Amino acid sequence: MNILVLGDVVSQCGCEKVRACVPPFKRIKGIDLCIANGENSAKGNGITPESANELFSSGIDFITTGNHAFRRREMYDFFEENDCVVRPYNYPPSVPGKGVGIIDMGRVQVGVINLSGTMFMESLENPFDAADRALEEIKNCKIRLVDFHAETTSEKLALAYYLDGRISAFFGTHTHVQTSDERILPKKTGYITDLGMCGPFESVLGVKKEIVIQKFRTRLPVRFETDENAPCLVHGCIFTVDEKSGECLSVERIELD
Q1: What residues contact 132, with CB distance under 8 A and at least 6 apart?
Q2: Which residues does the annotation mark as catalytic?
Q3: Which residues of 66-101 are buried (b: 16+ CB within 10 A; e: fewer)?
Q4: Residue 155 to residues 41, 128, 194, Cα–Cα distance (Å)
Q5: CB within 8 A of 121, min separation 6: which ones?
Q6: How far apart are CA 17 and CA 5, in angstroms?
Q7: Which pLDDT does position 44 carry in this prediction?
Q8: pLDDT below 50 — which residues of the chain?
Q9: Model pTM score
């Protein structure tokens, strides 16, 4: 099975780039399943039902999120009602939505776990303990995927090695910079530290570079904005997974312009 996973989709321009690039790319590469992190897909930050539905209509089958999942209140009911969009599992169970999802492909079931890091981020449940519990919820799925939305490479690597052999693929999101360390871990789990982003390349993590420079130079508050007319790139990975064993066979890092 060929699984295409996309990094954080940034604002309206990122959604439009996904719509333009992903459908033909899926046909060329024979993609069976496409997952994207959509927590920044709404214009002005966060995710809304409108931006989620735009991604679904653009060839995305399943959406993961992260620390901005609940920035837009209009998304709360959508998390409860839609089984194809998840928030990090290690949020308190009282918040809207679910942290795991199961995609029924007919011939095989794919379980997706969304987790958030705790280093330099929200003080949530320990992601290692949360991962153990989440795996129990998808124990009948032959293929298991983890989107770890985290700040530090060390936390991502440590959790990946902890889960090696128990999941098919582990991909990091959140930092918006694609890493070049894609590989298969010793126990056959596919890995990449960060998928990158789908958004304006000539920016600072999707934000207008002048604004971020001003922030760093002056330390004064600024309002982050995305240049919606800037050229965009689509970053991600293709994980090829054996449907019988659940083991990852290959990892291919991709960039679409």
Answers
A1: none
A2: 68
A3: bbbbbbbeebeebbeebeebbbbbbbeeeebbbbbb
A4: 25, 10, 12
A5: 67, 150, 151
A6: 15
A7: 86
A8: none
A9: 0.96
